[in-house]
Amino acid sequence: MKSLLGRADYAAALFIREKIHGPRLNRILSRINRGEMMILIVIPYLAYAAWKNILPYPWWIVLPYTGIVSYANDRFVLFLKKSIARKRPLITVAGKVDGNPDMKHSFPSAHASNSMTASLLLVFLFGFPEWFLVLSLMAGIGRLLSLHHFPSDVLGGWLIGSGFGLLGLLLGRGFLFFLTGGA
What we know:
The protein is mostly helical. It has 8 helices and no strands. The chain has one domain. Helices cover 73% and strands 0% of the residues. The protein starts with a helix and ends with a helix. It is a multi-pass membrane protein. It holds the Pfam family PAP2. GO terms for molecular function: hydrolase activity.
């Protein structure tokens, strides 16, 4: 017998499959719901902010630090995915099989987790506008609508990403204090 959470996840995925999911939406989401898309938004904003001199730290600190913390988060999420090995809704609800071994595991959502980590660091450590947090929300919802994840996968990803973001924020403040000499 499945847990209440498992039944709720399955019911949500079934609803999405029957009422929302379709080839056109899937094609759109597969093009825009990628990690590269966040970079395509971050880089122009970073260039604009550097040009206008509105960020507290230069781009050559922002990008590597955010990248390193997000990469550590990604490796942890990958470890969890392999350890838990939960099948994706595309497999369990839609019956599709993907030959890529990395595409079979569902919990937690790396897109939700990585985008949350990066967004929290960019907004709360490096002074990006708060609307950057919406990117993480969009990443998670996109993964639900494309049936790549169950709701608990996305929520778990956001929770893990928040933890790494908070850790990165605390370590980053110390690192930046050291790097700038307390200025």
